[in-house]
Design goal:
Helix content is 40%, strand content 14%. The protein has 290 residues and is of the alpha/beta class. Strands 1, 2, 3, 4, 5, 6, 7 and 8 form an eight-stranded parallel β-sheet that branches. Helix 4 crosses helix 5.
Length: 290
């Protein structure tokens, strides 16, 4: 049986992204979203989550680019003088390998982000991270420890297909290979089988650029099992475009793909059942209606 969780990352990033995710849930195939507690539209996102309780919401742990929940005094090796986290995952990993980041600080910041989420009263269904840093072995160990004992909290498994798909940039495919190798590394070191994780993830190669044709191509390759498809719907508003133009994302194009009637036809054709983290935790027959 093919079961698919369609998760929209970056809820809370901006008001335009919030609106896009809500529409992709109400009118499209999105079943869950990951919340940035550090995002500029965090409070609005929480209000929308409360108004739409069927939308599963998880935590999008952020260790790069945004401002940390804790301040400079608590995180002297992790943030700059303004309280901002490392600008890129490359910078974070470079400093980590050089021993210039305290893992105690990383754990305090992740714990603070989890606490910030829990204070909203919204049910925490899953945990993932910006740029998939939760799968870096020391971070995964922290995440596993902090979520141990939490009821039905899933952790993203970003392992995906090894074969290069048509139309995928070589650079992005190489990044996919590196991410897959990291997932193998984590399995070898920390036995993530004890964690509650889907069988794998699709959408990495098309992150921020999930066109209708790319989405249909992915859906035609979904195998039996429980998989996650990541996406980034939103509105191409001036605020989002100005602040995050360096990402090169096409938020509105992804929104169009996720809400297109043709997309549901492909799901039916390939007998893919939309589900959510909450449904997967309990009755797997409790699927979002097609």
């Amino acid at each position: 049986m093919k079961q698919l969780i369609v998760n929209a990352d970056d809820l809370g990033l901006t008001a335009g992204v919030n609106r896009g995710i809500l529409r992709a849930f109400q009118d499209g195939i999105v079943t869950s979203a990951s919340l940035l507690v550090t995002g500029s539209a965090f409070e609005e996102a929480v209000a929308l989550a409360r108004q739409n309780p069927k939308l599963n919401v998880g935590l999008h742990v952020t260790l790069v680019e945004e401002r940390a929940v804790l301040g400079r005094d608590a995180l002297p090796t992790l943030v700059d003088e303004t309280g901002r986290l490392p600008r890129t995952s490359g910078e974070f990993l470079r400093r980590a390998f050089l021993g210039r980041i305290s893992w105690d600080e990383v754990e305090r910041e992740i714990a603070a982000q989890i606490a910030c989420f829990q204070e909203t009263g919204v049910r925490l269904s899953h945990l993932d991270s910006h740029q998939h840093l939760h799968m870096f072995p020391p971070v995964f160990q922290i995440v596993s420890r902090l979520t141990h004992g939490m009821d039905d909290v899933w952790i993203r498994n970003p392992a995906g297909p090894w074969r290069m798909s048509a139309g995928v940039r070589v650079e992005r495919w190489v990044q996919r290979l590196a991410l897959n190798l990291t997932c193998l590394w984590v399995r070898a070191l920390h036995s993530p089988s004890q964690a509650q994780m889907p069988d794998g993830m699709y959408g990495f190669e098309t992150g921020g650029r999930l066109t209708r044709s790319a989405l249909e191509q992915i859906l035609r390759r979904i195998p039996d099992g429980l998989y996650e498809l990541i996406c980034h719907p939103g509105e191409d508003d001036a605020g989002t475009r100005t602040r995050y133009s360096h990402w090169g994302y096409r938020w509105a194009e992804e929104l169009d793909a996720l809400t297109a009637p043709e997309t549901r036809e492909v799901l039916k054709e390939h007998r893919i059942a939309l589900t959510s983290f909450a449904a997967a935790s309990g009755n797997k027959s409790h699927l979002k209606s097609e």
